[in-house]
What we know:
The complex is a heterodimer.
Chain A: H1 9-25, E1 41-45, H2 52-57, E2 60-64, H3 87-97, E3 106-109, H4 114-126, E4 131-134, H5 146-165, H6 171-197, H7 204-213, H8 219-234, E5 245-249, H9 258-267, E6 269-273, H10 293-303, H11 318-328, E7 333-339, H12 343-359, E8 362-368, H13 376-393
Parallel strand pairs in A: 1-2, 1-3, 3-4, 5-6, 5-7, 7-8
Chain B: H1 28-44, E1 53-56, H2 63-68, E2 72-74, H3 76-85, H4 89-99, H5 107-117, E3 132-136, H6 140-153, E4 157-160, H7 177-201, H8 207-230, H9 243-253, H10 258-277, E5 287-293, H11 300-308, E6 312-317, H12 319-322, H13 339-359, H14 361-371, E7 376-382, H15 386-389, H16 392-403, E8 407-412, H17 422-438
Parallel strand pairs in B: 1-2, 1-3, 3-4, 5-6, 5-7, 7-8
Helix pairs in contact in B: 1-9, 1-10, 3-5, 4-5, 7-13, 8-10, 9-10, 13-14, 14-16
The structure holds iron/sulfur cluster (2 copies).
Amino acid sequence: MSAQIVPDYEAQLNAILDRCHSASLDARIPDAGELPEGYTGTLGNFPVYFPDEIAHAAGLLPVNILGGGNKLEMKHADARMGSFVCSICRSTTELGLNGTLAGLTGFVTHPICDAAKHLAGIWSRNLPDQMAEILYLPQNPNSPGAARYVAAEYQRLRAELARKVGHPISDAAIRSSIRLYNKKRRLMRELYQIRRDEPWKLSCSESYLLVRAGTRIPCEEHVELLEQALPAIRQRHVAAQDKPRVIFVGGFCEQPPLEMLETIDDACFVVDDDLLIGQRWFTEDVPEDVGDPVWALAESYIERSHASPVQHDERKPKGDYLMAMLRDGKADAAILTAAKFCEPGLDEQLFWSKDLDAAGVQYLVLEFEEKMTSFEQMAMQVETFAESLLFALA
Amino acid sequence: MTTAIAEAVPGTSRSAPAAKEIWTPFNAHSEGQRLFKEWYARLETANERHEPVANVFVMGNAIEILRSFDFHMVFPEINSLQTGVRKTSAEFIRISEDYGMSPDVCSYVKADVGMMLKEEKEPLGKMPKPDLSVSSNMCGTFIKWAEIWERRYKMPSFVLDLPGQRSSSWVVRPGDAQHSADSRWVEDQFKDLIAKCEKITGKRFDIDRLAEVQGRVNQMVIHWNNVMELNRTCPAPYNAMLDGLTYIGIMNVYRGTVEGVEFMRRLEEDVRAKVARGEGRVPEERFRLLFSGTPCYVSMRRLVELFETWGGVFAYSDYLTFAAGGMDAAELLYDTSRPLESLAEVTALAAQRGLSNQFFAHERMEKQIKDYGVDGVVFHGIKSCRFVSAGMADTRDYISKRLDIPTLYIESDLIDPRYWSDAQIKNRVDAFFEALQQRGGAGPLKGKATHAQGRTA
Lengths: 394, 457
Ligand code: SF4
Ligand code: SF4
């Protein structure tokens, strides 16, 4: 009788997380020789949401440009931007000016806020050889005609990318990209379901790393990675500790440092968050077998998307989506964050706090910057908050 | 960012025309003040009279449609800047920060929230409760600001999404495929807005009213373009950064009205007469400047004084373009035989002009520098306004390298007095003028600029 080989799930998961961690620290753009098979270039895109499928179908690796974290040395950008612009815009500019992003085929930003729109101008002045543009995703998803407009904007992008890569992008290619990205998003939805159901099995920082890897490695590889990670997470034997259940919001654009998420993990179970929400933008699958795949993407953007502070949608009042997150995650409280100098984030934070006041839900307000390196004070705040929650819940 | 009823800086203008001269004396500032007072007075009683009120912004606002439904227009940006001019902004900003607003967000929003919390609207009376707000995506903060009213007043906020310039060297010609797609989207939204207005007011949309309003806007735009072009003359008849604020204020608040047309007509006449007389804004014009950004309203007099004492006059400010929503080109006129389609087409083009002035600022600035015969460019970075300033230092770097033209970069805020550092700003301004002087800039710059050829409204 042979002994059954039990896979070492924990080791497997750790290896995956290590890989994700190094991918997230690497801001470099692969040059032609290093590109994964099937790709002929890279398309940088700024948060929050970008239709990766269109780039993927063009054979361009979509890379979400997420700033410089807390290890980047600023040499050029400080002189090119006023002192009151958020860190992600400053460090993205630095990465452009210091050559790190020189290998991009193009860079696309969005009208999420005014600072982000300016990046297209900065790019065109300093990196004139790269395609640099604003993809004008609409701020009015409520008027009839919004999906038609988004579809026209996507067709424009498709035509530009086709010119850039030198071949047309077929409907069939976009359909197959949609199928692949749907699979990835389904896996991410499962990941978040685990966090809501058994948050002790996956911390916020681990989940973040798993999602973040998908912002730069090919989707094919990310799907594989998530397919391996999910069973390993489910098999984890971790005792549920005595920690309050919280949701974390405000991480939709500039990235909070990993150490900040770990600090929160130490004291709380983060059962839901809006980190990298653009990667998980759709609440359901994008229709796969439709005549016009671009329309399917456009219509999904309008009809099947998460709420975010950078989009005004009268169907998604602020309090409602926050309450839904709290309810679905059976959370006791919320951590309301915002990046320093982030106008949409800071404004939304106030709305959230007033809604939670009205609903009698506890919350902690934190401001962060991607370049933060010291977390002692924050740790104390979070611990005190967690203790007071546990006391109140006891 | 906004338009203003800035107070005139005494002692710097030439005296008024003598009584024996044949034209009716026209003082744009006092006439502007009178019109603004009347506007505020009408607003104050709008709710009592059960007349509809809309909160709008100066960029991308669908005023033509709202006016065809007889909405009263409130411009919260103008209210906020008035707190700066009247030096009450600090208190309102403090109130809003006590309420929980961040020190790092737009100070206009904070002044407005401060006023709301005090249940009053300074400085010119109580503002009516709005029935609707229209905010465009031209500045992202407009949308967040409107969300505050939406929650407070429980009324709809309509976001007018205006697709802007997508990339550098972006050329859109009326009628091409891109312009058609954008116009169609804008028209779809106008139709939606019209349906909302019908519901709020209980009135049917009257397309002839719209055409009538558009006809008046066309006249205003023609006069406005002529007024702007006249400042290409040396000496410049007005200060684009100071006098221009009153002009643009009327362009916004009285857009599409009989009074608005009359003001702009008389303004053009007045400016034209000044040009004919060789009368300049500063007694001895020595440097022609371009101002990029918005002024600091709490230190408005001081700011102007710092430049005018050196004989520097702002011949042009990009503010005059974006605060008019981009309607600074005479080709942007409505075809009143197809009112709604034309409204959408022109709005789409104007929005791109207004937006590109900021996001791809270098492209138009090169031309403006030439058109206005400018000796130097002054960039005013506004702490709380990322729309105006996030790309400014980089634009400055680009412009100074490419054009070999002296530039000055100063930073403060629109209405938050905490960010005005007088000694530092004065030092920088003085050093800038010294550099200009070293380039042989002293003495009036005769024959530098061309006289503008105006069109007839
Ligand atoms: S962090 Fe905020 S301000 Fe900065 S780019 Fe993102 S949304 Fe804009
Ligand atoms: S951010 Fe600037 S443009 Fe926008 S509302 Fe504030 S002052 Fe105006």
